[in-house]
Protein backbone atom coordinates (compact mmCIF):
# COMPACT_ATOMS: atom_id res chain seq x y z
CA UNK A 1 0.00 0.00 0.00
CA UNK A 2 1.24 3.50 -0.84
CA UNK A 3 1.95 6.02 1.90
CA UNK A 4 -1.07 8.03 0.75
CA UNK A 5 -3.20 4.89 1.08
CA UNK A 6 -1.86 4.31 4.59
CA UNK A 7 -2.84 7.83 5.61
CA UNK A 8 -6.35 7.39 4.23
CA UNK A 9 -6.72 4.01 5.88
CA UNK A 10 -5.84 5.55 9.24
CA UNK A 11 -8.16 8.53 8.76
CA UNK A 12 -10.95 6.33 7.45
CA UNK A 13 -11.18 4.53 10.76
CA UNK A 14 -11.63 7.71 12.82
CA UNK A 15 -15.14 8.86 13.68
CA UNK A 16 -15.27 12.03 15.79
CA UNK A 17 -17.22 11.96 19.03
CA UNK A 18 -18.52 15.50 18.42
CA UNK A 19 -21.51 15.82 16.09
CA UNK A 20 -20.41 19.24 14.81
CA UNK A 21 -17.07 17.74 13.69
CA UNK A 22 -18.84 14.89 11.91
CA UNK A 23 -21.02 17.45 10.11
CA UNK A 24 -17.90 19.39 9.04
CA UNK A 25 -16.29 16.24 7.66
CA UNK A 26 -19.48 15.23 5.85
CA UNK A 27 -19.67 18.75 4.39
CA UNK A 28 -16.16 18.27 3.00
CA UNK A 29 -17.13 14.95 1.40
CA UNK A 30 -20.17 16.46 -0.31
CA UNK A 31 -18.31 19.62 -1.34
CA UNK A 32 -15.29 17.80 -2.77
CA UNK A 33 -16.79 14.75 -4.48
CA UNK A 34 -20.57 15.13 -4.22
CA UNK A 35 -23.31 16.31 -6.53
CA UNK A 36 -26.89 17.41 -5.90
CA UNK A 37 -29.60 16.18 -8.23
CA UNK A 38 -32.94 18.02 -8.59
CA UNK A 39 -35.67 16.28 -10.57
CA UNK A 40 -38.64 17.76 -12.40
CA UNK A 41 -40.67 17.76 -9.18
CA UNK A 42 -38.02 19.82 -7.35
CA UNK A 43 -37.06 16.76 -5.33
CA UNK A 44 -33.47 16.72 -4.08
CA UNK A 45 -31.05 13.80 -3.91
CA UNK A 46 -27.32 13.63 -3.24
CA UNK A 47 -24.64 11.45 -4.83
CA UNK A 48 -21.09 11.15 -3.49
CA UNK A 49 -18.54 9.47 -5.73
CA UNK A 50 -15.21 7.89 -4.79
CA UNK A 51 -12.88 5.17 -6.04
CA UNK A 52 -11.64 4.39 -2.55
CA UNK A 53 -13.57 1.82 -0.55
CA UNK A 54 -12.24 3.30 2.71
CA UNK A 55 -13.71 6.70 1.80
CA UNK A 56 -17.01 5.11 0.75
CA UNK A 57 -17.25 3.21 4.02
CA UNK A 58 -16.51 6.28 6.13
CA UNK A 59 -18.96 8.46 4.23
CA UNK A 60 -21.70 5.87 4.71
CA UNK A 61 -20.87 5.65 8.44
CA UNK A 62 -20.89 9.44 8.88
CA UNK A 63 -24.33 9.76 7.28
CA UNK A 64 -25.73 6.97 9.42
CA UNK A 65 -24.15 8.04 12.72
CA UNK A 66 -24.66 11.80 12.32
CA UNK A 67 -27.97 12.12 10.45
CA UNK A 68 -29.46 8.64 10.85
CA UNK A 69 -29.52 8.41 7.06
CA UNK A 70 -29.05 4.95 5.61
CA UNK A 71 -27.65 5.80 2.20
CA UNK A 72 -27.61 3.45 -0.79
CA UNK A 73 -24.28 2.23 -2.12
CA UNK A 74 -23.81 1.56 -5.83
CA UNK A 75 -20.64 -0.17 -7.06
CA UNK A 76 -19.48 0.00 -10.67
CA UNK A 77 -16.45 -1.72 -12.16
CA UNK A 78 -14.50 -0.19 -15.02
CA UNK A 79 -12.78 -3.08 -16.77
CA UNK A 80 -10.78 -0.88 -19.14
CA UNK A 81 -9.29 1.15 -16.27
CA UNK A 82 -9.20 -1.78 -13.85
CA UNK A 83 -10.91 0.38 -11.22
CA UNK A 84 -13.98 0.32 -9.02
CA UNK A 85 -16.27 3.31 -8.43
CA UNK A 86 -18.46 3.68 -5.36
CA UNK A 87 -21.55 5.90 -5.25
CA UNK A 88 -23.13 6.80 -1.91
CA UNK A 89 -26.66 7.98 -2.68
CA UNK A 90 -29.17 9.84 -0.50
CA UNK A 91 -32.43 9.58 -2.45
CA UNK A 92 -34.95 10.94 0.05
CA UNK A 93 -35.81 14.60 -0.55
CA UNK A 94 -36.21 15.49 3.13
CA UNK A 95 -33.04 13.65 4.11
CA UNK A 96 -31.06 15.35 1.33
CA UNK A 97 -32.31 18.80 2.37
CA UNK A 98 -31.56 18.08 6.03
CA UNK A 99 -28.04 17.06 5.11
CA UNK A 100 -27.47 20.10 2.88
CA UNK A 101 -28.79 22.50 5.52
CA UNK A 102 -26.65 20.97 8.26
CA UNK A 103 -23.54 21.08 6.04
CA UNK A 104 -24.26 24.73 5.11
CA UNK A 105 -24.25 23.92 1.40
CA UNK A 106 -27.38 25.97 0.66
CA UNK A 107 -27.40 29.73 0.25
CA UNK A 108 -29.78 32.11 2.06
CA UNK A 109 -32.48 31.45 -0.54
CA UNK A 110 -32.23 27.71 0.02
CA UNK A 111 -30.54 27.12 -3.34
CA UNK A 112 -27.54 24.90 -3.95
CA UNK A 113 -24.50 26.77 -5.20
CA UNK A 114 -22.97 25.47 -8.42
CA UNK A 115 -19.56 24.97 -6.79
CA UNK A 116 -21.02 23.22 -3.72
CA UNK A 117 -18.86 25.37 -1.45
CA UNK A 118 -19.64 25.84 2.21
CA UNK A 119 -21.56 29.13 2.11
CA UNK A 120 -21.36 29.98 5.82
CA UNK A 121 -18.30 29.50 7.95
CA UNK A 122 -20.29 28.29 10.95
CA UNK A 123 -19.64 24.69 9.91
CA UNK A 124 -15.87 25.30 10.20
CA UNK A 125 -15.90 27.94 12.92
CA UNK A 126 -14.19 25.88 15.62
CA UNK A 127 -10.64 24.61 15.31
CA UNK A 128 -11.75 20.98 15.73
CA UNK A 129 -14.27 21.38 12.88
CA UNK A 130 -11.59 22.87 10.64
CA UNK A 131 -9.48 19.80 11.33
CA UNK A 132 -12.43 17.55 10.44
CA UNK A 133 -13.13 19.49 7.24
CA UNK A 134 -9.48 19.22 6.10
CA UNK A 135 -9.56 15.51 6.96
CA UNK A 136 -12.69 14.99 4.88
CA UNK A 137 -11.31 17.03 1.96
CA UNK A 138 -8.09 14.99 1.96
CA UNK A 139 -9.98 11.68 2.11
CA UNK A 140 -12.24 12.79 -0.72
CA UNK A 141 -9.72 14.32 -3.13
CA UNK A 142 -6.26 14.35 -1.59
CA UNK A 143 -2.97 12.51 -1.88
CA UNK A 144 0.50 12.68 -0.34
CA UNK A 145 3.69 11.42 -1.93
CA UNK A 146 5.99 8.81 -0.44
CA UNK A 147 8.33 10.82 1.85
CA UNK A 148 11.22 8.56 0.80
CA UNK A 149 10.95 10.11 -2.67
CA UNK A 150 9.64 13.66 -2.28
CA UNK A 151 7.52 15.96 -0.13
CA UNK A 152 4.20 16.82 -1.76
CA UNK A 153 0.63 16.91 -0.43
CA UNK A 154 -2.29 18.05 -2.55
CA UNK A 155 -6.07 18.21 -2.61
CA UNK A 156 -7.76 18.59 -6.00
CA UNK A 157 -10.77 20.92 -6.24
CA UNK A 158 -13.18 21.33 -9.14
CA UNK A 159 -13.55 25.11 -8.74
CA UNK A 160 -11.28 27.99 -7.79
CA UNK A 161 -13.58 29.31 -5.07
CA UNK A 162 -13.60 25.93 -3.38
CA UNK A 163 -9.80 25.71 -3.58
CA UNK A 164 -9.35 29.19 -2.13
CA UNK A 165 -11.75 28.35 0.70
CA UNK A 166 -9.86 25.16 1.54
CA UNK A 167 -6.53 27.01 1.36
CA UNK A 168 -7.78 29.60 3.87
CA UNK A 169 -8.93 26.88 6.27
CA UNK A 170 -5.56 25.09 6.04
CA UNK A 171 -3.58 28.32 6.36
CA UNK A 172 -5.50 29.25 9.52
CA UNK A 173 -3.22 26.70 11.23
CA UNK A 174 -0.08 28.59 10.16
CA UNK A 175 0.47 26.49 7.02
CA UNK A 176 1.56 28.07 3.73
CA UNK A 177 -0.68 26.16 1.31
CA UNK A 178 -0.89 27.41 -2.27
CA UNK A 179 -3.29 26.97 -5.18
CA UNK A 180 -2.30 26.11 -8.75
CA UNK A 181 -4.39 25.51 -11.88
CA UNK A 182 -3.79 22.04 -13.36
CA UNK A 183 -5.72 21.35 -16.54
CA UNK A 184 -9.32 22.09 -15.47
CA UNK A 185 -8.81 21.58 -11.73
CA UNK A 186 -7.52 23.79 -8.95
CA UNK A 187 -5.00 22.06 -6.71
CA UNK A 188 -4.29 23.09 -3.13
CA UNK A 189 -0.75 21.91 -2.45
CA UNK A 190 2.04 21.92 0.16
CA UNK A 191 5.65 21.01 -0.64
CA UNK A 192 7.51 21.76 2.60
CA UNK A 193 8.24 18.60 4.60
CA UNK A 194 7.71 20.18 8.02
CA UNK A 195 4.38 21.67 6.92
CA UNK A 196 3.16 18.34 5.52
CA UNK A 197 3.97 16.88 8.93
CA UNK A 198 1.87 19.66 10.48
CA UNK A 199 -1.06 18.86 8.17
CA UNK A 200 -0.88 15.16 9.09
CA UNK A 201 -1.01 16.22 12.71
CA UNK A 202 -3.94 18.58 12.02
CA UNK A 203 -5.87 15.72 10.37
CA UNK A 204 -4.92 13.53 13.37
CA UNK A 205 -3.11 10.93 11.26
CA UNK A 206 -0.72 10.29 14.14
CA UNK A 207 0.61 6.88 13.03
CA UNK A 208 1.35 8.19 9.54
CA UNK A 209 2.89 11.29 11.10
CA UNK A 210 5.35 9.19 13.12
CA UNK A 211 6.36 7.23 10.01
CA UNK A 212 6.69 10.45 8.00
CA UNK A 213 8.85 12.11 10.67
CA UNK A 214 11.09 9.05 11.05
CA UNK A 215 11.72 8.99 7.31
CA UNK A 216 12.27 12.75 7.26
CA UNK A 217 14.81 12.57 10.11
CA UNK A 218 16.72 9.76 8.39
CA UNK A 219 16.74 11.68 5.11
CA UNK A 220 18.02 14.82 6.83
CA UNK A 221 20.73 12.79 8.57
CA UNK A 222 21.78 11.23 5.26
CA UNK A 223 21.81 14.64 3.60
CA UNK A 224 23.89 16.09 6.44
CA UNK A 225 26.40 13.23 6.19
CA UNK A 226 26.54 13.59 2.40
CA UNK A 227 27.14 17.34 2.69
CA UNK A 228 29.97 16.76 5.16
CA UNK A 229 31.51 14.05 3.00
CA UNK A 230 31.24 16.24 -0.08
CA UNK A 231 32.77 19.15 1.80
CA UNK A 232 35.63 17.00 3.10
CA UNK A 233 36.19 15.53 -0.36
CA UNK A 234 36.30 19.02 -1.87
CA UNK A 235 38.78 20.12 0.79
CA UNK A 236 40.95 17.05 0.17
CA UNK A 237 40.89 17.66 -3.58
CA UNK A 238 41.77 21.30 -3.00
CA UNK A 239 44.64 20.33 -0.67
CA UNK A 240 45.96 17.70 -3.10
CA UNK A 241 45.77 20.10 -6.05
CA UNK A 242 47.61 22.77 -4.06
CA UNK A 243 50.30 20.26 -3.00
CA UNK A 244 50.81 19.10 -6.60
CA UNK A 245 51.19 22.72 -7.74
CA UNK A 246 53.65 23.43 -4.91
CA UNK A 247 55.80 20.42 -5.82
CA UNK A 248 55.81 21.47 -9.49
CA UNK A 249 56.88 25.00 -8.57
CA UNK A 250 59.65 23.79 -6.26
CA UNK A 251 60.98 21.37 -8.89
CA UNK A 252 60.98 24.20 -11.44
CA UNK A 253 63.03 26.38 -9.10
CA UNK A 254 65.40 23.47 -8.40
CA UNK A 255 65.90 22.70 -12.09
CA UNK A 256 66.40 26.34 -13.15
CA UNK A 257 68.32 28.21 -10.45
CA UNK A 258 68.74 25.57 -7.74
CA UNK A 259 67.28 25.47 -4.26
CA UNK A 260 70.59 26.60 -2.74
CA UNK A 261 69.91 30.12 -3.98
CA UNK A 262 66.84 30.35 -1.73
CA UNK A 263 66.89 31.71 1.80
CA UNK A 264 67.37 29.10 4.49
CA UNK A 265 63.70 29.28 5.52
CA UNK A 266 62.44 28.87 1.95
CA UNK A 267 64.93 26.10 1.16
CA UNK A 268 63.87 24.14 4.26
CA UNK A 269 60.20 24.49 3.30
CA UNK A 270 60.95 23.42 -0.29
CA UNK A 271 62.93 20.35 0.75
CA UNK A 272 60.28 19.27 3.28
CA UNK A 273 57.51 19.62 0.68
CA UNK A 274 59.49 17.55 -1.85
CA UNK A 275 60.15 14.90 0.77
CA UNK A 276 56.52 14.78 1.95
CA UNK A 277 54.31 15.70 -1.04
CA UNK A 278 51.13 14.41 0.62
CA UNK A 279 51.61 16.01 4.04
CA UNK A 280 49.26 18.71 5.34
CA UNK A 281 50.49 22.20 6.23
CA UNK A 282 50.36 21.32 9.91
CA UNK A 283 52.39 18.16 9.36
CA UNK A 284 54.97 20.08 7.32
CA UNK A 285 55.22 22.72 10.05
CA UNK A 286 55.87 20.05 12.69
CA UNK A 287 58.69 18.57 10.56
CA UNK A 288 60.54 21.86 10.30
CA UNK A 289 63.25 22.78 12.81
CA UNK A 290 62.21 24.79 14.68
CA UNK A 291 58.50 23.93 14.11
CA UNK A 292 56.42 26.47 12.23
CA UNK A 293 52.66 27.07 12.34
CA UNK A 294 50.30 26.43 9.44
CA UNK A 295 50.15 30.08 8.43
CA UNK A 296 53.96 30.28 8.41
CA UNK A 297 54.27 27.19 6.20
CA UNK A 298 51.55 28.49 3.89
CA UNK A 299 53.37 31.83 3.60
CA UNK A 300 56.64 30.12 2.61
CA UNK A 301 54.98 27.86 0.04
CA UNK A 302 53.13 30.81 -1.49
CA UNK A 303 56.45 32.66 -1.70
CA UNK A 304 58.00 29.68 -3.50
CA UNK A 305 55.09 29.61 -5.98
CA UNK A 306 55.56 33.34 -6.58
CA UNK A 307 59.27 32.82 -7.28
CA UNK A 308 58.47 30.00 -9.73
CA UNK A 309 55.94 32.16 -11.57
CA UNK A 310 58.45 35.00 -11.91
CA UNK A 311 61.12 32.62 -13.19
CA UNK A 312 58.71 31.32 -15.84
CA UNK A 313 58.05 34.89 -16.94
CA UNK A 314 61.75 35.85 -16.81
CA UNK A 315 61.10 38.52 -14.22
CA UNK A 316 63.46 39.76 -11.55
CA UNK A 317 63.41 37.43 -8.54
CA UNK A 318 64.29 37.91 -4.88
CA UNK A 319 65.08 34.58 -3.24
CA UNK A 320 64.57 35.52 0.40
What does this structure look like?
The chain has 320 residues and is of the alpha+beta class. It folds into two domains: 3-204, Endonuclease I-creI (Roll), CATH 3.10.28.10; 222-312, no CATH class. 55% of the residues lie in helices and 14% in strands. The protein contains eleven helices and eight strands. It has helices at 3-12, 19-33, 53-67, 93-102, 127-141, 160-171, 193-202, 206-256, 264-275, 281-287, 294-312; strands spanning 34-38, 44-50, 72-78, 83-90, 142-144, 153-157, 178-182, 185-190. It has a four-stranded antiparallel beta sheet. Helix 2 packs across helix 3 (53-67) and helix 8 (206-256) packs across helix 11. The radius of gyration is 35 Å and the shape is rod-shaped.
- So what's the CATH class of the largest domain? Alpha Beta
The secondary structure category is alpha+beta
Shape: rod-shaped
List the domain count as a whole number: 2
Uncertain runs:
none
What's the CATH topology name of the largest domain?
A: Endonuclease I-creI
